[in-house]
Amino acid sequence: MGFRTQSRKTDHPLPCSWSLYAHHPCDSHDYKVSYAHVFDVSTCKAWGEMVQHAPQAAHLLAPRTTVLLHGRPVRALSFFRQGTRPEWEHSSNRTGLTLTHRLRIDPRAATEMWTLLTCECARGAVHPAVNGLQLTQRVSRAGAMLARLDVWLRVRDGTTCARVVAELNRLGARWHIQLKTAPRA
User: Fold this and answer.
1) 3-state SS, residue 160
2) In the CATH scheme, what architecture does the domain 9-175 have?
3) pLDDT tens, 110-163?
4) Rounded to a whole number, what is the distance in angstroms from the first to the last CA of the chain?
5) Domain boundaries in the chain?
6) What's the Cα-to-Cα distance from 52 to each of 48, 56, 94, 115, rounded to whole Å?
7) Which helix or strand (DSSP H or E) is residue 53 part of?
């Protein structure tokens, strides 16, 4: 279903492989069939191909634009450690929590942010407790396009959460984003 690229030593293997998923609108009872695997990333080259060919955050968050995958609208993108599915029932996520931030962000800045965050994950620069990221399209009551950034952690301890929030705030300062919301279990 998704892209897999042939890896060679010259493709610069990453310390950890990741997978990109696209999420379709759903009800809570059909969540496990509401997302599709899009791309595997195990080398720098594969990450670059994902950035170039996969749906961009700007497309996801642009007003009056609908991203389609296999004829179905896409409402979110997620990037997870390979072997971890973007669902709470998965064994890697069961004992963790989500750090959530809602933001108003220009679609082009959202692509820059998403690209940098996936790069930090792929190159192994994020805290090892981070299982994945999810960027979700939301519409406010007033009709404004919003984004929700979720960072999925494999643990719940306060020290780890504080470290991850500090790392993300350092990265997010570029877009004037500071995580302020409490973690969701």
Assistant:
1) helix
2) 2-Layer Sandwich (3.30)
3) 898 899 999 999 999 999 999 999 999 887 777 777 888 999 999 998 899 889
4) 31
5) 9-175
6) 6, 8, 32, 10
7) helix 44-53
